[in-house]
Amino acid sequence: MSGGDRVVLDFLQLQTACRFVGSGADMDRRNRAASLVDTSACFCRVDRSSAAAAARRIPVSKACVQPSLRASIHPLKPRPSTGADRSSRGGQCPLLPGLPDDLAIACLIRVPRADHWKLRLVCRKWCRLLAGNYFYGLRRRLGLAEQWLYAVKRDGRDGRVSWDVLDPSRGAWRALPPVPREYAEADGFGCAVLGGCHLYLLGGRDPRRGGGAMRRVVFYSARSNRWHRAPDMLRRRQCFDVCVMGNRLYVAGGESGGGGGLRSAEVFDPAKNRWCFVAEMAAPMAPFVSAVHGGRWYVKGISAQQQQVLSQAYSPEADAWSVVLDGMVTGWRSPSACVDGRLYAADCKDGCRLRAYDEAADAWTTCVDSKQHRGSSQAAEAAAIVALHGRLCVVRNDMSVSAVDVAAGAGNQRWQTLAGKARTKSFVTGLLSNLAGRSRAKNNILHCQVLEA
Description:
With about 450 residues, the chain is α+β, with helices and mostly antiparallel strands. It has nine helices and 24 strands. InterPro entries: F-box-like_dom_sf, F-box_dom, Kelch-typ_b-propeller, Kelch_1, Kelch_FKB95.
């Protein structure tokens, strides 16, 4: 280990100890919730020498718990071992000097997610530990995983697609590196999350290649912080809808680019790493809102001839579509999300008033009202509603995020601002933009998803 690595290691060791001892009430609560040492953990992601040393201290060890997603489906190619790595393993260099590796891992998994990029810079051994599923799988199993909000948006001036991430504990959006080039200017693509930590982008229209629909599928891993390719869809699609049920990815409807609508639907099974067709829709349509509720996928959209509004529901158990005409789809046009088995949707354009679907009465009722409405402008419009740490979050085009605990009961539901609106322009810049006719919204949020790591 070089002198610089040793200095950084000593600093991070001291910083980790400080966070471990005096990180406040929240960290104390999380530390009490998780045991200090997980004696039944699998050490398949740690060096063999460390695993052997740990095995001697553990009288009885359980079998290795395999990740829910196969490594071949979400590959993380191991780097070829070098002479320095072999010498490090031969010397049995510990993760933290003076501590067994099981105790070192118990300390490292408690480091906040925002500082994980620093851990990767300490040494190769730390980088290998954070590169696999073992480290983050352990955080998730012990209740230490953190949820971040990712927003895929289109710039209102140049039309390019970018994405930002919000750490709720810091309350500020941070720009991320560019999305894959095939989606830099794409339109009508889908977005979903599998396994809690893999963000998928599917299909869409690529204007760089003549504006035709795509079959392409890519996904981003919050654990490795990299983009990967996934098997292409069976049909070219744009302006379709996507959902996740039973850790499977479903797509349906949309257009193929030839002018006609699609009735076909597909499902991607990550355990088999392939797509296959499911039952066709009752009628071709271009969905504009959907939700998973009660084990069924509800989709509402425009017919292929754009003459009427259609509502359909898909049941994965029966593998069949059915036309829906109940009170749930009546007047349902705004973003929605499901929390604790109950479906919520925005009841106004800015999302400051929410309503819930009552199955017994088969009707929507207003349940939460912040009484702090921001108007009906495009910038203040609610672009998405997501569930974050058991609370409903309303994300608007101006990048402001408001959260409310809908389970608190009437009278105790208080709204909290997780992120304010984006930084406004100066007076001179705003005046010139208005004179030039460029006063439209700066951002248009296309998709919002929550990733856990």
